[in-house]
Amino acid sequence: MGLVIAFWVLAVLAILSALGVVLLRNVFRASLSLVLCFLAVAGLYITLSADFLAAVQVLVYVGAISVLIILAIMMTRNVPQGNPSNKLAIPVFIVAAAFLAVMVYAVTGTAWPVSTQPPLEPTTAALAIKLFGEGGFILPVEIAAVLLLAAVLGAIVVAREK
Amino acid sequence: MNLALEHYLVLSAVLFAIGLYGALTKRNAVIILMCIELMLNAVNISMVAFSRFIVPALLTGQVFAIFVMVVAAAEVAVGLAIILAVYRGLETIDATRINLMKW
């Protein structure tokens, strides 16, 4: 029962703060709303018993990515304040609403093969075995490391003063 | 009432649609990047939900979510570097006015 209440509170919080990102006039407030949305998503991971992912969500999104985004907002400070839309607002709204309708229709109409097994409780060790163990995802992990290195180098090269 | 997979999938669809709307309509490039992050988060929620409700013992969806986070972090770093470079050159990050590569 507590799980259900937690889900609804976090879901409403996530949706309201996501709407805040899109609708708030002030760019800085929109970024703070995004941080709130990330925190709500971390809480949702906990209701899904994904404890390690919740911690990673807080560390990576709330900690690192939001700091990067706020830094970028500060660096582009004398851009005229405000969060205006372009000319496409109404057609895009129709497209997004149609997408949402199709998704909800498909999701609620599908008979998912739901398993009744209880979830794995501490997931950290199991995830580590999945990622690094025999027959796991070790090659994608290595590729992800190379991707991160390339992204960091690319960001430095693109952003530095000529 | 119990929580079902559909709750999480509908929530993720709502978040994705909000992010889609923002990414396609906003002028400020930083806001566009934030909306893309929102969409990646929505996808992550649905993958973790699939992992929890369909293969609870395998955790495959959570592994995928970790890779999505890695790619999202790399994307934010490169995207913000591009935004700063554009701002230095054009003194604006209004996506409707960045049209150097427009055909």
Keywords:
heterodimer, A: 162 residues, mainly alpha, Four Helix Bundle (Hemerythrin (Met), subunit A), 2 domains, B: 103 residues, Helix Hairpins
SSE order and pairing:
The complex is a heterodimer of chains A (about 160) and B (about 100).
Chain A: H1 2-23, H2 27-47, H3 51-75, H4 89-109, H5 124-132, H6 138-159
Helix pairs in contact in A: 1-2, 2-3
Chain B: H1 5-25, H2 29-53, H3 60-90
Helix pairs in contact in B: 1-2, 2-3
Overview of the molecule:
The complex is a heterodimer of chains A (162) and B (103). Chain A has helices at 2-23, 27-47, 51-75, 89-109, 124-132, 138-159. Chain A has 162 residues and is mostly helical. The mean pLDDT of chain A is 89. Chain B has one domain (5-90): Helix Hairpins. Helix content of chain B is 75%, strand content 0%. Chain B is elongated, with a radius of gyration of 17 Å. Classes of the chains: A mainly alpha (162), B mainly alpha (103). Chains A and B meet through helix 1, helix 2, helix 3, helix 4 and helix 5 of A and helix 1, helix 2 and helix 3 of B.
Concise synopsis of the structure shown:
The complex is a heterodimer of chains A (162) and B (103). Chain A is mainly alpha-helical.
Structural class computed from helices and strand pairing of chain B: mainly alpha
Basic shape of chain B: elongated
Question: What composes the largest sheet of chain A?
Answer: none
What count of helical segments of chain B does DSSP give?
A: 3
Q: Residue-averaged pLDDT of chain A, rounded?
A: 89
CATH topology of chain B: Helix Hairpins
Percent in strands of chain B: under 5%
Helix count, DSSP H or I runs of 4 or more residues of chain A = 6
Assembly level: heterodimer
Number of domains of chain A: 2
Number of strands of chain B: 0
Q: Could you say what the CATH topology of the largest domain in chain A is called? A: Four Helix Bundle (Hemerythrin (Met), subunit A)
Order of helices and strands of chain A: HHHHHH
Shape assignment of chain A: globular
